[in-house]
Each structure stands twice: as C-alpha cells, then as structure tokens.
Amino acid sequence: MWSRGPRRPPHHPPHPAAARWAERALALFVLDPVLLKASGTPRVDFLHRCLRSLDAELGGRLVVVEGDPVDVVPRVAARVGASSVHVSADAGPYGRARDAAVAERVELVRVGSPYAVAPGRVTKADGTPYRVFTPFSRAWADHGWHLPVRTDASTVDWMSADLGVELPAGERLPDVRALWEAFRDEKLPDYATRRDRPDLDGTSRFSAFLKWGVVHPRTLLADLGRDAGAKAFRTELAWRDFYADVLWHEPESARRNYNRAFDRMRLDDDRDRFEAWCRGRTGYPFVDAGMRQLLSEGWMHNRVRMVVASFLVKDLHLPWWWGARHFMRHLVDGDLASNQHGWQWAAGTGTDAAPFFRVFNPVTQGEKFDPDGAYVRRYVPELRDVPGKAVHQPRDPIVDHADERREALARYEAVKR
C-alpha cells in the first residue's frame, strides 16, 4: 500500500479478502531469521522503515513478531482467535515451502501475488513456460492484469494486540505517492532515453518499494500512459514478472545455472580478486564506482549492475552466484528472482538470448553511459580531479580486459565442444 492516500488506489490483494472474510483483522509481520541472516544492514534498515510506516498507517496496531513463521503464525492466530490467515502468495522456493508448512497448521488463504500477473499464469499455447523474454512480454501484455482495488487502512477494523516486539526507533519512508507522482510527471517522459545513464537522475528507484510491498505494480501500471517513457517503464515491470515466472517453474535456477551446459565452464577461485571487486578496488573506474555505490547506498544503477556482473564473470572468471550473493546481502531492493536471473543474464547462463561471448568493456561502457565522468567522480573520490572521459581509463587494474576477454571466450569454446 502507499504511505499516504493516493489518487490511484493502493493495491494489496489479501487486504480486501480479509475484510470480506471477517469484521476484524490483525495485521501481522513475521521477522524470519532465515531471511534476516542473509540480509545486510541496509536491507534490514530499509525493512524497518517500511514497517514503521505501515505501523503508523494502522494507528500503531501492526504486530511484528520474530521467529520461524511455521511456529509463529499458528501461535498468534490461536492467541487472537483467528479462523484464517490471509497472505499474498509467495512465488519463491523458500516462501512456497514455508507457506505450505504453515498451511498444515492453520487455514492459510493465499490471495494474489506481488506481481502484475501471478507467476505460472502466462504460458505458451501448449501450456509450457516461456524461456525468452520478448514472447513472454507480448503474452503478458495480452493477458493483462486487474485494476487495483482500494485497500487503505480504513477499510478494515484492525485489532490491537500486545504480542510482538518493539521496532527500533528511526525514520519512516518518505511520501511514496509524492515520489511516484514526481517521477511520473517530471522524469517518465524521458525515461526511455535517460534510464541507461547512471550520471543522471533518470530512474524511478521504485525497485525497493516493489520488493518490500510498499507499492504494488498494478498501482503503477494503472497510472501509466502510452508514450515511449511509459512503454519502457512497463517493460521493466514485465521483466520483473518474467523472472518471477522463471523461478516459479525452475526453482533450482536460484542457485544453479539455468542452462546446465555451463556447469562444464571452468571457473576460478580467487578470493583476493573477489574481495577487490566487492570493495570497488579493481582499477576500472566505472566498475569501482558501481561497487562503491552499492556499499554506500544499498543500491546500484541497473546499467552499472550489468557491467560489474560481466566483469566478475568474464574478466575475473568467478562464479556468478558469488556476485549474486553479495548483491542480495547489500541491495535494499534485493529480490531473489530478479537478482539471480539478472546475474544469469549477464553471465550468459540464463533464459534469454544473452550470449556468453558478449563481454562488456568496462572502459567503453563508462565512456558511453557516463560521458562526462560525473558518475565515477561521485563515487571514486580519488579521481575527482580527472577531467571528462579520461576518468574512465584504468588505473593499476587487477587484470587486463583484452586478455581476460580472450580467456573467457576460450573457456566458452570449451563448453561448446
């Protein structure tokens, strides 16, 4: 839901379902130690901001409990005399298993999903899943999605219950509706041409709000027009649904190569180089700027995500899942489906036509998408006095890109044989 009442209604599928089911409801959020363990401080802090905002919307009646949901949810339901528990269906492998275990102990009603179209709904004519984004996106658009239904706090009589833990004091979220309207009116018209430029403030940064359920994609889709910017933004939401669909059908792809032929790829095990990549100390300024942005902000521009991922896999020859795990720990918008399959796209091991032999050149990528060097100078302070495109030239690089590109292609040829 929105942080404040929007012009377009917020959308949270379990909310109206619960309102139809009973006169009163308890708002419960479970802090699962399994998920918290895999999350770094930025992710947990952002989650706390989301929960503080939601609690304020509910008049201080949000119940937050720590523990295994399989034990916590039935116990809380019994304490308040709840006859059923309503949740938004989880499409991830862990969430599906967790919800199935909860459903064995309490009546669990799964309603909707955090996606415009629930994973598994869009299939080919023969019922098999799509493996390539472009035909999926066409079928996704043809399938369509429901309009959002109003789910502000006033539509349910929320119960109070002294059952949970105190959230740590801190900031709430900003006015998310105001952020969306500012982006829609001021930046969306140029989104198609500016979204690839990390030196410009041209993206929505709504990925974290979508990840944590602060806003539903149907709310955003209902507010989009038909111009080029809106079309490009709609395509990004389609990518999010596509990767969730892939994970739904192939849950093992969260941990293993989607294209199993790449299981034969020879990989290195150089922890020193990996640490240099993590800290933004590779000697390639565009890569280092992205990795330092991640550490300082818990976010990285999408174009730069592709470049740093390519560098890890194809210049350093390290496993994509090392990088994916690092991203999931630090990104406030770390969504399992989007993150893992975005990494597999960059590694050439995934679903789409992203051939392994396409190797991003970190210098030319910087020169093209950060033409004046403003992005690099923002995050690599030791280069702030270097003018213009010269800032993108390597300085004491840990590898030679041309040499490592040839090595990557040689390893690829061995896989093909």
How large, in whole angstroms, is the Cα Rg? 22 Å
Query: Biggest sheet, strands in spatial order?
Result: 1-6
**Basic shape:** globular
Integer tally of domains:
3
Would you report the number of β strands? Answer: 6
The CATH class of the largest domain: Mainly Alpha
| Low-confidence runs | 1-9
Question: Largest sheet, described in full?
Answer: 2 strands, parallel
**Number of DSSP helical runs:** 19
The oligomeric status of these chains comes to: single chain
Order of helices and strands: HEEHHEHEHEHEHHHHHHHHHHHHH
Which class do the helix and strand fractions yield? mainly alpha
Give me the CATH fold name of the largest domain: DNA Cyclobutane Dipyrimidine Photolyase, subunit A, domain 3
Round the mean pLDDT to the nearest integer and report it: 92
Helix content percent band? 40-55%
CATH architecture of the largest domain: Orthogonal Bundle
> How far do the termini sit from each other?
51 Å
Strand content: under 5%
**Superfamily (CATH H level) name of the largest domain:** DNA Cyclobutane Dipyrimidine Photolyase, subunit A, domain 3
